[in-house]
Amino acid sequence: MRHLISELDLTADEFRSIIKRGSEFRQQWQNGIHEALFPRHTLGMIFEKSSTRTRVSFEAGMAQLGGHAIYLSPNDTHLGRGEPLEDTARVLSQMVDIIMVRTFSHTALERFSEASTVPVINALTDLLHPCQMLADMQTYFEHRGDIAGKKVAWVGDGNNVCNSFINTASLLGFHLHIACPEGYEPNADVLNRGKANAVIAESPEAACNDADLVVTDVWASMGQEQESKDRKSAFENYCVNAELMGSAKDDALFMHCLPAHRGEEVEGDVIDGAQSVVWEEAGNRLHAQKALMEFLLKSA
Ligand code: CP
Ligand code: NVA
User: Fold this and answer.
1) Residue 146 located in a structural domain
2) Does the beta carbon of 164 sit less than 6 angstroms from any atom of ligand 1?
3) Residue 21's pLDDT is what?
4) Domain range for residue 74?
5) Is residue 248 part of a domain?
6) CATH number for the domain that contains residue 261
7) Is 117 in the pocket of ligand 1 (CB under 6 A)?
8) pLDDT higher than threshold 90 for residue 10
9) Atom of ligand 2 nearest to the CA of 223
10) Which DSSP symbol is given to 262?
């Protein structure tokens, strides 16, 4: 039985085969085909943070696979009243076939997965966002083929999505150049483990120079709202604008996991421009996660 807590829980071959399968699901969806591969299966969805894409893609994805999804928020469950995570994992394992969790603490999610007897998916923690990586890589591969050997620029906060890009760079063999203000670097352990494929760049321009893919994310992630004012001044030179995109390769793609703040981490003419693939990237959450659920349910 397998979980997906970190990108590094998968081998490179498994990662590539899941996104290939995601592309097949995308093709089927475009042709109006929903193969009910998992009838009467149930996905438990624990959300301790907000979500648009993750909730809808998992819920719609499970419905399309012939199953059902249950949305569980701390307000409606005993998680919000102090029932231990491990107990919740044990109880849900008696009732559902697979569980996804969006929460703050990565170690809490690890504890949850250790107590669970059904597959657990990390749907974002403060440390990592592996489902986003499956969708992002599926999108890149669909446009440009394999990403091995390519240059990827990360501009902005060294946050959960950045950490996940570091892990994915190690796994798939691309070169990640991270431009972030001092004090907002990615997780030191993650960077240290991934240092063969990820470096801190001198500036956003240096990171983007000749890049095949430019990626950014919000300046203040969920849970950091009270830091927004300080972050706005720290990040003012970390906005992906047309000039920065101009230093990347002519055919460079632009990605953002969304939600985006136009005029902060990205200018409107970039995110809404010809190099941006953000809507497909968001759409591929659905297809990549159907492939992920299939992979994990078959492992169970
Ligand atoms: N990108 C992403 O995970 O979006 P949501 O927060 O809307 O789920
Ligand atoms: N870094 C962002 C990603 C949202 C999908 C956050 O954690 O809020």
Assistant:
1) yes
2) no
3) 98
4) 7-129+282-299
5) yes
6) 3.40.50.1370
7) no
8) yes
9) 8
10) B
Do 16 and 98 reside in the same domain of the chain?
Answer: yes
Distance CA 187, CA 88 (A): 29
User: Is 175 among the domain residues?
Assistant: yes
**Is 64's C-beta closer than 6 angstroms to any atom of ligand 1?**
no
**What is the DSSP annotation of 9-34?**
GS-HHHHHHHHHHHHHHHHHHHTT--
pLDDT given at position 43? 99
pLDDT at 185: 98
177 DSSP β-pair partners: 153, 199
Pocket test for ligand 2, best of 136, 155, 160, 187 (most atoms within 8 A of CB): 160
| Domain shared by 76 and 214, yes or no | no
- Which residues have a catalytic role annotated? 102, 129, 132, 217, 257, 285
Residue 300 has pLDDT above 90, yes or no: no
- Count how many domains the chain has: 2
Distance 141 CA to ligand 2 centre (A): 23
**Residue 271 confidence (pLDDT):** 98
Q: CA 58, CA 119: separation in Å to the nearest integer?
A: 14
Distance 222 CA to ligand 2 centre (A): 6
pLDDT at 68 over 90: yes
Give the pLDDT band (50/70/90) at residue 245.
very high
Look at residue 111 in the predicted model and tell me its pLDDT: 97
Ligand 2 center from residue 40 Cα (angstroms): 31
Angle ∠(28,65,70) on CA atoms, nearest 5 = 140
Element (H, E) at 204: helix 204-208
1 located within any domain: no
SS3 state at 151: strand
| C-alpha 282 – ligand 1 centre gap (Å) | 8
Same domain, 72 and 141: no
Asked whether the predicted pLDDT for residue 229 surpasses 90, the reply is yes
Statement to judge: residues 136 and 268 lie in one domain: yes
Determine the distance from the C-alpha atom of residue 206 to the mean position of all C-alpha atoms in its chain, rounded to a whole number. 25
